[in-house]
Each structure stands twice: as structure tokens, then as C-alpha cells.
């Protein structure tokens, strides 16, 4: 599975984004390998921005609920990034 970040979700859903075509192509490539997922945090961040997203945006991605034990690993990965 591929977990996409908020910026990718926004770019996929916003046809005026300069990264729209790139983001859509990246998601299509990832889908060939398996599910393309968002989590509740990514969705909340996407809807918190100034852009208007379709109400059915969540349907374009698989939804992923991950265990709390993943949080420290995600934090470490973000720190390394």
C-alpha cells in the first residue's frame, strides 16, 4: 500500500494546481502496485486548507487506519525526511 500525503491529495483534486498532472500520474503508478491510501489526518489537513475539495474526495482513495504503535515510526521517518 502507498500512503499519500496531504499535498498529493490536494494536487490530485485541484485541476488548477501546477502539480495536478504529476500527482495524478504518480497516484496511477502507485495504484498499479496496490492500494493508494489516505488516513484521517491527511483528509483533515486537506479539508482544512483554503482550497475547495469535493465532498466525495475520500472515495478517490483507500482509507487506512493504522495502529497507534505506528506513530513513533512515522515521526522518526518524518524527522529523517
Total helix count? 4
Helix amount = 40-55%
Number of strands: 3
Query: Based on helices, strands and strand pairing, what is the structural class?
Result: mainly alpha
Radius of gyration: 13 Å
Beta-strand level of the residues, as a percent range? Answer: 5-15%
Report the uncertain regions: none
Using the alpha-carbon principal axes, give the shape: globular
Q: What order do the SSEs take from the amino end to the carboxyl end, as H and E? A: EHHEHEH
Oligomer: single chain
In what order do the strands lie side by side in the largest sheet? 1-2-3
Give the integer mean of the pLDDT values. Answer: 85
Terminus-to-terminus distance: 20 Å
Biggest sheet architecture: 3 strands, parallel
Characterise the protein shown here.
The model has no long low-confidence stretch (mean pLDDT 85). The relative contact order is 0.19. Helix 1 packs across helix 2 (20-33). This protein has helices spanning 6-13, 20-33, 40-48, 70-80; strands at 2-3, 36-38, 62-63. It has 81 residues and is mainly alpha-helical. The two termini are 20 Å apart. Helix 3 links the parallel strand 2 (36-38) and strand 3 (62-63). The radius of gyration is 13 Å and the shape is globular. It has a three-stranded parallel β-sheet with strand order 1-2-3.
